[in-house]
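Dear support,

We are seeing what looks like truncated structure output for some complexes. This example has two components. We would appreciate it if you could run it in full and send us the complete token output so we can diff it against ours.
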Amino acid sequence: MSENTGRPVVADLDAAALTTLHATLLDEYAALQARGLRLDITRGKPSPEQLDLAQPLLGLPGEDDFRAADGTDTRNYGGLAGLPELRAIYADLLGIPVEQLLASGTSSLTVMFDVLAYAFLFGRDGSPQPWGREEKVRWICPVPGYDRHFAMLEHLGIEMVTVDQTPDGPDVEAIARLVADDPTIKGLWLVPTYSNPGGETTSAEVAARLAAMPAAAPDFTVLWDNAYAVHHLTDDESKAVDVLGLAAASGHPDRFVVFASTSKVTFAGAGVAFLAGSPSTVAWYLRHLAFGSIGPDKVNHLRHVRFLRDADGVRAHMHRHREILEPKFGAVLDTLDARLGGTGTATWNTPRGGYFVSLDVVDGTARRVVELAREAGIALTPAGASFPYGHDPRDRNIRIAPTFPPVDEIRVAIDGLATCVLLAAVEQRLS
Amino acid sequence: MSENTGRPVVADLDAAALTTLHATLLDEYAALQARGLRLDITRGKPSPEQLDLAQPLLGLPGEDDFRAADGTDTRNYGGLAGLPELRAIYADLLGIPVEQLLASGTSSLTVMFDVLAYAFLFGRDGSPQPWGREEKVRWICPVPGYDRHFAMLEHLGIEMVTVDQTPDGPDVEAIARLVADDPTIKGLWLVPTYSNPGGETTSAEVAARLAAMPAAAPDFTVLWDNAYAVHHLTDDESKAVDVLGLAAASGHPDRFVVFASTSKVTFAGAGVAFLAGSPSTVAWYLRHLAFGSIGPDKVNHLRHVRFLRDADGVRAHMHRHREILEPKFGAVLDTLDARLGGTGTATWNTPRGGYFVSLDVVDGTARRVVELAREAGIALTPAGASFPYGHDPRDRNIRIAPTFPPVDEIRVAIDGLATCVLLAAVEQRLS
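Here is the complete output from our reference environment:
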């Protein structure tokens, strides 16, 4: 028995107790299946109520409103860097000089793809040659991490090397060793604030080390995907680290390319993405962008300026998101605790922000848990999704995305998931 | 003297008459400079009055309107192919099955860049290897043509080979010879309807030949940039040629990739771009797109559906554009005729649609004309811009973009331009 919960520690059970528990769990699982659930906790999508918070955007800027502060007609071509007054809002939020921050189209994923595409087609400043001409390009991936990052790298033929995420961010000692001597290692991808899926925030110390460490590749690049920069769930809010300042001070001004977006602030599919970097990185990006764009959607930029107003407007808006999301995350954490606490079959994080809870089940059972859940009508992100090539070496990590479904569905889904976690753990001990 | 106009044919003048005319033109040019003009006829931008036609878009879809016809919440992620009801409108206009036509972001230039980037990074279906791995990639460019096409090809390191534009489209005999034996020739870029700058429409016969001709490169690709598909200036409207049908019937289903956009229908900077192709080309595009996008701006798609309604709605809207543009093109043509008709110093086209008038001056004088105009405060597109590498071998072509300025400014600018054309022609004869 666990001292704290009175529930059995599965690893401590003898054969008879295991068999009894197995039978109980099979009954529980059969009952779960009999409910005919159709629940989905797979993707980090905002819920309709969150999208409703930005409902005025649908009527903005309004029929007579199309002039930017400097008189620009936002309806026409031009303005490759994006609307200055919108850039100013995010420059303020992220602590970046406005000249070094651009507003783009609707998706930061697209901007990140473009940055990698430009590096492959043309090279970064300082690249010996375009990356597409290199024999091999390798990349450091902290794990668990964001599946779309890994999928893009794999699609580009980049070989992924993993390091562990720690509570302070990626294992910077391991990174420093990898980049020091190997010029094929061209980069690193990070979600620095409330990471996907583990919720860790990269500390100022780790960021400073990333900025300062020597790298064999002259064009070593950190893609700083600050997707959840303002997406707090508690009063203990992570602050933006000034990585561009750190990098400049360390003599590696072009090392970081910073990304953010309003996808999970306003509309997931119709927001605005941002790119920031050193003055020369911004110039590099614009130089290549100019061949494939005459400018981003400035009307959507203006629409966002009218709605968000300023950095405090964004902060106030994000507080309303928090009010919607806190009960959902609470439902996940409460249910996990009630069902799995003290059983020794799972650990999980308590996120202070972002969009996910990262659940580690008994080693070697994550795939089985996801399979059991699927067969009970509970869709989970595939096991291994948070690892390069979909391969979780310990087969233990499951990403829970609680933002989209209603609270009652989350409770049911996580309760069902807990049954699957326990059942898989017992099955493993019996096998 | 010209029989028709009573104006002198410059080439026929003797030395004394030339000297007299030169003095007269120098006076005229001095008077032009003295006016201190600041006129710009450089870029194919819609005018504010044209943008005003789409003013309701600024308040659409409206605060309570975000559901697509199939119930999709347009505000959220997803829907990589674009909103079906918007795709249906352009499928109707272009005569393409809706399954083969996608709605994308705001810029067809961006979609075209992405298609080339995917070809370079990953190859097209049937490519022996990604284009970026080829020793040499060559491309056929009908001239004069669109400067942004040429600039993008040059930036990608593609070697450009020119063929002439004819009144029926590009010189297809020359193209067929070039592609027959040379596998390094990977493609051809065309503005098939009311081309930039010459206004020619590629005939059904030329299109059929392009579809049917054998090509040494298995992945030979025609980028069919139908930017002005519905941009008529007369009742003699060019019809869309069914190139995808022709290509499929000729056994080269994947040869064409078709592009269009609402940039010059609704808002130049906030419209919607479209891509179409064979089912396998569309699948190829989506397969790569999926790594850098979770879906386009579906709210902007819905906004356009609400405003344009259907294909007839687009046609009616384009008629309102025509009412604005006809007097502007008329001012160009009338002024050119009044000042240069019968002088033997220039020829030009009478466009039935599109955004440009293409002016050919005396061989070897286009750069001088542009220089003279600039020094008189009239900004023209740089001479040579309509040719690869900015090199017009006969130094004679000047692109006139009359859509943006008001009619009275156009008259003044073209009148001044005519003085420069005549002065440059006389200078050349005297030199």
